Amino acid sequence: MTAIKHDRAELGDITLHYAECGAENDELVLMLHGFPEFWYCWKDQIPRIGETYHAVAPDMRGYNLSDKPDGIRAYGIKHLIGDVLALADHFGTEKFYLVAHDWGAAIAWAVAIANPERVKGLVILNGPHPFLFAELLRHHDAQIAHSQYIARFQIPDVETELLAEDCKQLWDWTFSDLIPTGEMTETDEFAYKTAWTQPGAMTAMLNYYRASPLVPATEQTKGQSFGLDPEAFRVQVPTLVVWGEGDKMLVPENLDGLENFIDDLTIVRLPGITHWVTHEAPERVSYEILGFLERLNGKKAPEKD
Predict the structure, then answer these.
(1) CA 85, 154, 160 angle in degrees (round to 5)?
(2) CA atoms of 233 and 255, how far apart (whole Å)
(3) Distance, CA of 95 to CA of 92 (rounded, Å)
């Protein structure tokens, strides 16, 4: 298995740390993590994908070893899209593949919608389509209930609570259930807590939520629409969605009607797998990503391990 290398990319006014495998002359696959992760969530996939492609997993702005610009506005979607395009430019690549999970998926959807000419293929892991998610946040009781953490993360100074007691609250909310099953280890826990306690990181991570207009409905706003035009959210890029059906934060209805926004769509459902698909089903995730990329390239899909 190829060893993971680390470097930093200077992208104008921001520098991003990234992990990578593969040769720079191979086709580029950018892998975007979500909250509250960092490049490490792809540690099992980077070497496997790097056998054939140039797999690059950045710490998104604000996370771990990447720059952490001040202020909520620095985490608006236009800046997050810009980081992805600038990173591809850094590697001299006009067209690239995007693989993304959770908040990374929100960014990847936005990149593919706004810049389809740059994206050769899109792989989404448990990350809702923005229009469908916005509708569910206003109309679907279960999704509203599951998304109350979004409103909480927008409360000023909530990072003090999340950092308290060696980040116990945040760890328990995310990964503690995966330790008894062996899908997360004490080594993994140390890696995550080290990333979360980088100076300024927790505030920067939460600023993604604070900059987002999407919040779960209150009693006053329930049933109201965000007023979004569905035509503005069409995805003109071949797309694979891999979905852990045991997700406790995202209801399965996030997949309903997805075909209305994407002409070339493949959905793979993983029963019994929760939101943390890269940890719970690492080999299956690699297999599905590589199979999709090989299909787009007209090559034979890889054998299952």
Answers:
(1) 105
(2) 15
(3) 9
Report how far Cα 148 is from the mean position of its chain's Cα atoms: 19
Q: How far is CA 111 from the centre of its chain?
A: 12
Please state the φ and ψ torsions of residue 219, each to the nearest 5 degrees. -60, -30
305 residues of the chain, pLDDT tens digit each: 578 999 999 999 999 999 999 988 899 999 999 999 999 999 999 999 999 999 999 999 999 999 999 999 999 999 999 999 999 999 999 999 999 999 999 999 999 999 999 999 999 999 999 999 999 999 999 999 999 999 999 999 999 999 999 999 999 999 988 988 889 999 999 999 999 999 999 999 999 999 999 999 998 899 888 889 999 999 999 999 999 999 999 999 999 999 999 999 999 999 999 999 999 999 999 999 999 999 998 865 555 55
Place of tokens 């070339």: 264
Cα gap 160→162, rounded to integer Å: 6
> What is the token pair recorded at 304?
């299952």
pTM over 0.90: yes
Q: Please give the structure tokens belonging to residue 245.
A: 């059906």
Please identify every residue annotated as catalytic: 102, 209, 275
Which residue from 252, 238, 236 is spatially nearest to 289, judged by alpha carbons? 238
Question: Is the CB of residue 149 less than 8 Å from the CB of residue 170?
Answer: no
SS3 214: coil
Strand partners for 28:
54
Quickly tell me which residue has 């060893």 as its tokens. Answer: 3
Q: Are strands 265-270 and 239-244 parallel, antiparallel or unpaired?
A: parallel
**Closest by CA position to 63, among listed 49, 91, 42:** 42
Phi first, then psi: give them for residue 44, nearest 5 degrees. Answer: -85, -25
